[in-house]
Design a protein that fits this description.
The protein is an alpha/beta fold. It contains 14 helices and 19 strands. It binds S-adenosyl-L-homocysteine, iron/sulfur cluster and FE3-S4 cluster (F3S). S-adenosyl-L-homocysteine (SAH) binds next to strand 13.
Length: 465
């Protein structure tokens, strides 16, 4: 399909708008909604779009899930436990319906996009009123209208690579905002289900992204987080394509105080991007660079297209260009066939790089992916022991790496009151690390300058300057 045809046409968006208006006037519409979100930032942002549409329908957000008349689960299926948790909670809601017979239960997101899921819902989960996949998010008004006008389940799953523009967004935070720059993924890492449930890579037009960023800046947003499964391949599908580095440079010029992005695939991390980062004040000195494994053989089996040395070279370049940069990563242990020695290579890499944080996962086979078909799947107890070792190593190293901030000056964008005390606030410093400082509700959402004074319970504490 040509790229232009992927953008949902304005006429279609107008049609959806008309459904919103219809629902607004319906006496039987739900009064309150609650969105339950699983998975990554991509899903969190989709939930903000769902909330945006629901509010336009005249439905207000409920304080608690069990008080709402309309509950929607935005699901994730990247690992089996994510899926199990979602299905468990959806089923539990059936009980809540006994006290609230009018309760509408809806399910959307990546899990619905899995092959056979539509049939499964119609057969085994008949109490679900509405289900739709990631490709149908922008049709939610129409699907909601249908649901409100029938006693049957409405289940719609399509395999389309669309780019919806202009959806209303009810943002969860005032001071920080997500901006999707591209949808989907073409990488087909052999363990990963995302390309199957999120479709092919497609980039938004740079003008659309810039307009959104400027709008956010004008409304006082202090930080934007650019989202894509692989932001480094932004623009490759655009005519006269703009690179991710060039897009960042443009965004840097808007004057938004803080710019972050995720996720970057190491194989596409260009020197151009590193240059842009080193020359910018607004692009924060932090980088999430998933390594997945420290073993060349496993990386190859994972279809990652880089070696351990190439990865380490990127890390070295980043650190040279942006001194003190905050580095985080994702690691999978127990990939099929991973030997003890190969696991040790991952441990050694972690020790060498010294990440500021690491998200560690036990490999989870996903139906339809190549790795799920591979022989010699690792025994659960072996994988569990490996992840425990890895976590222990990382926690120890993190204590050390964090110490480098003690005595330095940082700028914190405060997210909320600290969980430990009502007289302090916490948020992220420019390097992506959480810092707690004295403050009150009035300080939330502000950028505060501080001097880092120490390390307490694994988090940095600072004093305001
Ligand atoms: N596009 C991003 C994030 C994808 S999902 C990226 O490429 O980095 C986030 C993380 O989940 C991945 O980085 C990987 O570490 C983990 N993951 C994905 N599939 C998995 C699986 N089948 N089992 C265990 N972890 C998985
Ligand atoms: Fe999954 Fe790999 Fe794509 Fe990330 S880059 S979403 S891990 S296939
Ligand atoms: Fe999960 Fe979908 Fe994100 S599978 S990790 S919510 S893209």
């Amino acid at each position: 399909m040509k790229r232009e045809e992927r953008v949902v046409q304005p006429e279609e968006m107008k049609r959806q708008e008309a459904f919103i208006e219809e629902i607004r006037e319906m006496p039987q519409k739900p009064k309150s909604y609650y969105v339950v979100t699983y998975g990554c930032q991509m899903n969190a942002h989709d939930s903000e779009k769902l909330a945006g549409m629901l509010q336009r329908m005249g439905i207000t957000e409920a304080e608690e899930r069990d008080k709402a008349d309309f509950v929607i689960f935005n699901t994730c299926c990247v690992r089996e436990n994510a899926e199990r948790r979602a299905l468990g909670n959806v089923t539990w809601l059936k009980e809540v319906r006994k006290n609230n017979p009018g309760l509408i239960i809806a399910v959307c997101g990546c899990m619905i996009q899995e092959p056979g899921m539509a049939e499964k819902i119609l057969k085994q989960y008949r109490f679900i009123n509405l289900a739709f996949g990631t490709a149908n998010l922008h049709c939610f008004p129409e699907l909601m209208y249908r649901t409100l006008n029938t006693d049957r389940s409405v289940v719609v799953v399509e395999d389309r690579d669309v780019i919806p523009e202009g959806l209303p967004i009810a943002r969860a935070r005032k001071e920080a905002a997500y901006i999707t720059i591209m949808y989907g993924c073409n990488n087909y890492c052999s363990y990963c289900i995302v390309p199957y449930v999120r479709g092919r890579e497609r980039s938004r037009q740079p003008e659309q992204i810039l307009r959104e960023a400027e709008g956010l800046r004008d409304s006082g947003v202090k930080e934007i987080m650019l989202l894509g499964q692989n932001v480094n391949s932004y623009g490759k599908d655009l005519e006269g394509g703009m690179s991710f580095a060039a897009l960042l440079k443009e965004l840097d010029g808007t004057g938004i105080p803080r710019i972050r992005f995720m996720t970057s695939h190491p194989k596409d991390l260009s020197d151009e991007l590193i240059d842009v980062m080193s020359g910018s004040r607004h692009i924060l000195p932090q980088f999430h660079l998933p390594v997945q494994s420290g073993s060349d053989r496993i990386l190859k089996m994972m279809n990652r297209h880089y070696t351990r040395d190439q990865y380490l070279d990127r890390v070295r370049k980043l650190r040279e260009a942006v001194p003190g940069i905050g580095l985080s990563t994702d690691i999978i242990v127990g990939f099929p066939g991973e030997t003890e020695e190969e696991f040790r290579e991952t441990m050694a890499l972690v020790e060498k790089v010294r990440y500021d944080s690491a998200f560690t996962f036990i490999y989870s086979p996903r139906v339809g992916t190549r790795a799920a078909e591979m022989e010699s799947q690792i025994a659960p107890e072996v994988a569990t022991r490996r992840i425990q070792e890895l976590i222990a190593l990382q926690e120890g190293l993190q204590q050390e790496t964090m110490k480098r901030f003690v005595g330095t000056e940082e700028e914190v964008l405060t997210e909320g009151l600290s969980r430990r005390s009502s007289e302090s606030v916490s948020g992220k410093g420019r390097h992506g690390i959480s810092i707690t400082i004295a403050g009150t509700v009035q300080d939330v959402g502000e950028i505060l300058r501080c001097r880092v004074t120490g390390l307490k319970n694994n988090t940095l504490v600072g004093e305001r300057i």
